[in-house]
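Contributing new records

If you add data, match the layout below exactly. Sequence lines come first and carry their own label; structure lines follow with theirs. Keep one chain per record. Anything else will be rejected by the validation script.
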Amino acid sequence: MSGPDKPKVIGEDWSDERVKSFLAIDPYNKDLNPDFYVLLKAYQSMRAGDFERFIGFFQDAGRDLNAVNEHGETILDLVSQHRRSVDYARMLEKAGAKATAAADH
C-alpha cells in the first residue's frame, strides 16, 4: 500500500487512494492541531496537482482549512512565505483558506 510513509518520488502519479491517505496522518505531538498538521504534511509531500486534489478530499471530509499551528498561523500563512509556492497559495485561497494577522510578525 502506498501512503504518506512512502518516500517522495518526483514525477510519480499519485492515485486518489494515496492522496486521501494523508487524511489519516496523526500529529506526533498531541498538542498540534491535526488539521493543520495534515495540511502541512500534504503540502510538504505533494506536487501542486496532487495537493489541489487533496484540498478537495480534505474539505469533503469536513476538515478545517483554516486550522492554525502553535504560532497561530494557517497553512496559507506558511505557504505564502515560500516564493516557489505561489501555485499552492492560489489553490488554498481558491478553496477558501484565509491568512491571519499572526503571520505578520
